[in-house]
Fold this sequence. Notes:
Organism: Alicyclobacillus ferrooxydans
CATH topology of the largest domain: Rossmann fold
Strand content: 25-35%
Protein name: Glutamine synthetase
Oligomer: single chain
Shape: globular
Pfam family, one: DUF2249
InterPro entries: DUF2249 (IPR018720), TusA-like_sf (IPR036868)
Order of helices and strands: EHHEHEEEHHEHEE
Largest sheet: 4 strands, mixed
Amino acid sequence: MESNDTLERNLVDLDVREILLAKGEPFQVIMEAIGSLQSQDVLQLHTTFDPAPLKKVLGKQGFQNCLHKKSDDHFVIQFYRSEDTRPFWHLDNRGLEPPQPMVRALEWLDTEDGLVNGEQGLEIWNERVPAFLLPELEERGLQFDINDLENGTVVVRIYRQAN
Length: 163
């Protein structure tokens, strides 16, 4: 059995906005997607609102969540299994050519208030250690942990200590 540190991590994207706009019920589609996740996978769900009841249901099943409001009618919420007390937004930068992984991480850091006040963190999945990003993080007063999974993925967790 492999440890969680060597399992492949995947971001599974599911957009249910069209179902919701057609006044349909996406619960079954969402639960099927949740059921297909591997232990390290993250479900990235696109909805038209903050799905508080779904967060409660999945929370009882051991899922953490992290929400990002893109616009008044576009919410992106990530569900994943974790023992952490701090939620982490997951950003998959694998397959991107430099400097795109760094640009994406910095754009997220520049737009997210949760990291500023210590409520949430950012977990990026890269193919290598982001050497040029690390000084930027230090300059912003952010902490980070690096975990090379030795399967082609380097996980960098970025966070601010809560006051």
